[in-house]
Amino acid sequence: MAHGEVLEFEEYVRTRQDALLRSARRLVPDPVDAQDLLQTALVRTYGRWDGIADKRLADAYLRRVMINTRTEWWRARKLEEVPTEQLPDASVEDSTEQHADRALLMDIMKVLAPKQRSVVVLRHWEQMSTEETAAALGMSAGTVKSTLHRALARLRHELESRDSEEPAGSALEREERERCAA
């Protein structure tokens, strides 16, 4: 790679690293794994940087590399996981409601298959259109819509099942928060 392209890549990473890390964080729940995911994607992209003709599409290219990398990791770990009857309790590091909601959302996102998770992240967090999501994931717009529909239904079901498992005290606290917020 030419020296000018190396500098161009370094400048790209310097200006886009925060947004790219946010994207990685949405794809994997653990912050350390998100940093690893981004670094791995950057290394893979660096090797192909000169092949990206339109550098305005570098974000889309890098997101696709992150999704592919995360899928590779998921497949590799999938063989090591052992299913259990009970899910572990979600831990919340911060007591604010926003952080609790984010932790709950990231926790329930784990129930989605990688393809579903990718569609939800791109459509709702990255706010890409159906067509943009389809192009980024290499699928048809109809497949994006149906995958999103099934993923959101699965998330709703998971939330409802967790609400029904709440202890009585937690349910009362949640109702009180909802009443105060209204």
Order of helices and strands: HHHHHHHH
The separation of the N and C termini measures 58 Å
What's the mean pLDDT score?
Answer: 81
If helices are DSSP runs of H or I spanning 4 or more residues, what is the number of helices?
8
Q: What is the total tally of β strands? A: 0
Largest sheet: none
Explain this structure to me?
This protein is mainly α and 182 residues long. Helix content is 73%, strand content 0%. Helix 1 packs antiparallel against helix 2. The protein is globular.
Core attributes:
mainly alpha
In short:
Helices cover 73% and strands 0% of the residues.
Present the secondary structure layout.
Blueprint: H1 3-27, H2 31-46, H3 58-78, H4 97-108, H5 114-125, H6 130-137, H7 141-164, H8 168-181
